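Could you please review the protein record set out just below?
***
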Amino acid sequence: MTRIATLLASVAILAGAGVAHAASVNDGVYSADQAKRGQGQYDAECARCHGPTLGGGGGSPAISGPFWAQWEGRTLGELYHFTKASMPADGPGGLSNQAYADILAYMLSVNHYPAGKAELPADVEALKTIPIVRRP
């Protein structure tokens, strides 16, 4: 096998195993089903402070619209870590890793970042490879 064929075969294997990561949040890094799960979790755990439409309220900031500008140039891993370390306010870190990832997928959905086929991983190290950039 030539070097090019070997390289292409390796890339195909890694992509098929879900190891390849999207270039940014604009590349469909969560699934629509995951965002739907996240909406239910958001409604149960987050809406009481951040509002039913992520618009904020009662002293809690909006997590839609301009909120994303402060995260541009950072990664989903940083946002995941921040969220897990500080939310919900009455019990930070109290949700499962999957619940935090699902809620993050819902946040991306509401903010019009495109869905893809694969789910957003519930692993902070994997999320650190996905930069937050401005929507096109």
The helical segments are 3-16, 32-45, 47-50, 76-86, 97-110, 124-127.
